[in-house]
Each structure stands twice: as structure tokens, then as C-alpha cells.
Amino acid sequence: GTVRRPTNFICTVSDERGEDVLYGGVPLTEVIEKNYSLGEVIGLLWLKCKLPKWASNFIEMCLKIVADHGPCVSGAHNAIVTARAGKDLISSLVSGLLTIGPRFGGAIDGAAYYFRKFYNENKTSRQMVDEMKAAGILIPGIGHRIKSVRNPDKRVELLKNYAKTQFPQTRYLNFALEVEKITTAKRGNLILNVDGCIGVLFVDMLNSCGFSSEEIDEIIEAGTLNAIFVLGRSMGIIAHVLDQKRLKSGLYRHPWDDVLFRVEPPKVIGG
Ligand code: ACO
Ligand code: LMR
Fold first, then answer.
1. Residue 175 to residues 15, 64, 88, 213: CA-CA distances in angstroms?
2. Distance CA 145, CA 121 (A)
3. What is the distance in A from the centroid of ligand 2 to the CA of 264?
4. Which residues on neighbouring strands pair with residue 22, listed in sequence order?
5. pLDDT of res. 5
């Protein structure tokens, strides 16, 4: 019989060979005619499924909620400085995106991983806090530079309210809120932050949608949840770059009086 030549690539995302490109098996015409939301398109392309409305709305809500948080945060700041150095839109956007990581915006998968792990191991919130401290790991999804118990993060309130009214269950969120009680008793700014809230709610969503434990492991390990921040925040970073270009802002140089210069004569070593 015929022997099929082995292919160099496998693709399970989309297929553009026909008249209509398929997004995870759904023709683009259907996506447009049935007015799929961005959350539903992400469901098709990233999660390979048609999500229920409450879940695709949640994803879309996350994108809107993380779209921007002002000019002073790492991502926007880097992009603004880059744009003011005369670089193009894509370079400036990428320089902003490169700041997304474990401390800023990229704690979502980590939060999902640790809260899920401790909850699934039937550990208490106290055990989670103590064991993470003993391991010398800051809990991803806990803590914020400016938001605190006294200055709550509206974004987190919006997410919690949505989940409490629309999700079938929120057991990982509930666990994270127990952890938050302990961390905020220590310091007011150790709240469940927007990354943490998205992380635990994603796990609640995936569980309620019937994803298996192995599938959830894979989704988290692949960085899918941080990708929500990357995609959403790109909207805001692009806005800051366009803003600087519109304003024709010149080269930025950081003021000397904001740097503590501590240059010392070199140590003489050897000889
Ligand atoms: N878990 C446990 N303890 C914490 C955490 C945490 N996540 N964050 C801070 N602490 C403790 C520190 O151990 C320290 O305790 P000590 O005084 O006993 O030494 C104290 O709080 C102060 O720590 P700092 O790092 O100075 O806190 P800061 O307010 O500057 O940090 C930050 C804020 C960077 C967000 C930090 O809390 C953190 O790294 N959190 C985890 C990562 C995370 O979730 N990032 C996403 C933030 S939201 C976003 O970017 C969209
Ligand atoms: C953000 O969304 O960029 C933040 O929560 C970080 C910050 O310091 O505001």
C-alpha cells in the first residue's frame, strides 16, 4: 500500500487549506455569523473546546480586566521608555511584554499550580502558608505593591462577584480566600491579587467544564494562564506606545536625583 511520508509538523489548532479557515474545527464563517466572543475563540484555539457561556464570558472578562493598569507598572513603563527611544511599535510592545513574569502579571500559572496542589492534597490554608514559607517561596498570586485590605483591588472584587454568581462552584477561590485571611493578618498588602484570583478561578472553571486532572496539569505547565495576561495587557501596552508617539515625547533619561550612586573603588584581588 501507499506509505505516507512522515510530516515535520503536527498542527491541532487550525486548518486553512479549505475555503474557510477552521478554528479548532469550527469554520470561521460560523464564528462570525454566530458572533462568537473573544472568550469563545480562545476556547476553540487554546483549549480546543466550545466553552459554556459563563466560562467564555469569564475569559473575556479577564482580558478586559488586565488590559491596563496605568503607566507606572513594569510593562507599560518599559514600553514607554522604549517608544521614547524612538523604537517602533512592535519593539516597544515586546519590551513591555518581556517584563511579564513571576513578580508582574506572570504569577497566574504559579498561583493556579500552588493553590490547586495544596487544596488537592487536603492541606489547610495554614499549612500552605507555613510550608511555602519554609520552602522560601513567595506564594504566587498573593501581594500587591499598592492594593491592600484598606485599598482593595476593584478588579479582584469584579472577578469574585462574577464567579460567585455565575460559576457552578468556586472551591479553589474559597481556599485562596482562606489563605488570604492568614497573609493579610500579617501585612495588609498580602491580598489575593488579580493574578492569583484569575489563577484559582481558571482552575475552578476548568474543573467545572470537565477537564481531567492531567489536562489541567498540561494547561498550567504550558503557561496558558499567563498567556491571558500577555494577551490582555498587550491592549494597554499598545495604547501607551501609541500615546507616546502621539505626544511626540522625546528620549527619556532617568533623573540623577532618583539614583543612589554607590560606586566604590575596585577591590584589589590576587597578587
Ligand atoms: N507570599 C508570602 N509572603 C509574601 C508574599 C507572598 N506572595 N509577598 C510578599 N511577602 C512578604 C515577604 O516575605 C516580606 O516579609 P518579611 O517582611 O517578613 O520579610 C514582606 O511580605 C514584604 O515583601 P516584599 O517583597 O517587599 O513585598 P512587596 O510589597 O514589595 O511585593 C509583590 C509585592 C512583588 C507583588 C510580592 O508580593 C510578590 O512577589 N508576590 C508574588 C508574585 C505575584 O503574585 N505577583 C503578581 C502581582 S499582581 C500583578 O502583577 C498584575
Ligand atoms: C498590574 O495590573 O499591572 C498590577 O496589578 C501591578 C501594579 O503594580 O499595579
1. 41, 25, 44, 18
2. 30
3. 35
4. 15, 27
5. 86
Instruction: Render pLDDT for 92-141 as a digit per residue (tens, 0 to 9).
Output: 999 999 999 999 999 999 999 999 999 999 999 999 999 999 999 999 99
Please work out whether the CB of residue 69 comes within 6 Å of at least one atom of ligand 2.
yes
Give residue 240 CA to ligand 2 midpoint distance, Å: 15
Tell me which residue of 145, 143, 111, 103 sits closest to 128, measured CA to CA. Answer: 111
C-alpha 187 to ligand 1 mean position (Å): 10
Task: Look up residue 192 and give its DSSP letter.
Answer: B
**Cα–Cα distance measured from residue 39 to residue 51, given in angstroms and rounded to the nearest whole number:** 8
Look at ligand 2, atom 2, and give the residue with the nearest C-alpha.
69
Q: Is the CB of 145 under 6 A from ligand 2?
A: yes
**129 Cα nearest atom in ligand 1:** 2
> Which is the closest atom of ligand 1 to the Cα of 74?
50
Helix (H) or strand (E) holding 22: strand 22-23
Give the C-alpha distances (Å, rounded to integers) separating 66 from 1, 75, 105, 231, 249: 54, 12, 9, 9, 26
ipTM: 0.97
In angstroms, what is the span from residue 193 Cα to ligand 2's centroid?
9
Quick one: which of 134, 140, 142, 146 has its CA closest to 184?
142
> What is 257-269 written as a DSSP string?
GGS-----PPPP-
